[in-house]
Amino acid sequence: MTGIQAPGDPERPHLLSTVRARLTLLGSAVVAAMLLISALALITVQRRLLLSGVDEALRQRVDNVQVLVDGSDRSQALAEEGDREDSFLQLLDPKGLVVSASQNVRGAPAATSAPPGTGDVLRTVTGVTISPHRFRVLARRVQTRSGPRIVVAGKNLDDFEGSIQILTVSLTILIPPIVILLAVLVWWVTGRALRPVEIIRAEVEAIGGSELDRRIQVPATNDEIARLTRTMNAMLDRLQHTTNQQRRFVADASHELRTPLTRLTSELELLLADPARQKGDFDNLLADALELQNLVDDLLFLARSQSGLPDARAQVVDLDDLVLSEASRLRAGGRLTVDTIAVGPARVIGVPNELVRVVRNLVANAERHARFTVSLRSQECDGRSLLVISDDGPGIRPEHRAAVFERFTRLDDARSRDAGGAGLGLAIVNDIVTRHGGMVSVTTAPAGGAEFTVSLPRVE
Asked: Which CATH number fits domain 224-304: 1.25.40.10, 3.40.50.620, 3.90.580.10, 1.10.287.130?
């Protein structure tokens, strides 16, 4: 159940820290506040309605008394009605002195002062001699044969206050059980709603590093839980793919490093056995060390190139300058003809050292496989800067063109390592170009060899 720690968990979470408990508390608090507000509103409305009924009854009684009162101020007109403690009548002179009163308040002072105007005045008073409870009184000026008089009618509020008290007590008793019942219901509903999440959590927790092929069963419903499950499975797919890539990378790197290290070890053992060996042996050691250094540099570059393009080092770079510089280096070798007639302006935003590496790796690849000629071309077209490097070598068959950009890929297994390299050059090219927002592809060159095309965003 949600909110209860699994047996294998290192820590047991506090109950109030669970989503289930927070939802229950929040839902209960909201409902309790709404019920309290509703109860207060109901009591207020009921109070006003009952008090309005009392006031209307007082007006009706004063209307009846006003008809009966005449100039002689006869007391018979002020006879009490019903319970002696429930109501009373008084007739006052303009000074507020009692002229006549019902039997139950004979001799008592005026229950209220004289109204200032001619309209009805309603007040709630205490201290009426017939009852310790509060009374609602209405005072009205009337004109009689004996002159102006003030009719005062009073109504005991005992029943009114008793009704309000009963309503208040009833609501006070009912609201807490309702809130508790709702809290239990919310706790149960959220538990059922979150149970699939806990199942997913337990399944993901049970997946070990050697079981990344396991997946979570997707519910048949197309709700949030099903979408969460699909997202978790997609994350596991990416994690498995990344882990497999890392394992393959480590295995390939170990394999590639073993050969130069073995050669270095063998050469050193021979030198130790025969210190009088010739300088050429030291040249071989240096060549093996440089090969090993280059291989380690390439591996470190690929291992560190996981983030995007670092803006702090990016600047405007002229691809045509880089191409012409590599063409000069290639011509210095004297083995190949280098065609640079189609080299035109092509400017991009990027890290200069990395773009130099792109051009150098592609030129080195063309040099390695060309028979007679390497062609270099650069231009700007449709908002892109293009770099095209082709050769007249054997080319790359279509089914192998995607694989050449993977790490440690060498299509010609029969060739030597010196001729073929470690298979990291084109992988580094693809990595750098991708991080610069571009793409690299390979097709068949007009001369029959391989033609690599790099497309990068042009500088506006």
From this structure: 1.10.287.130
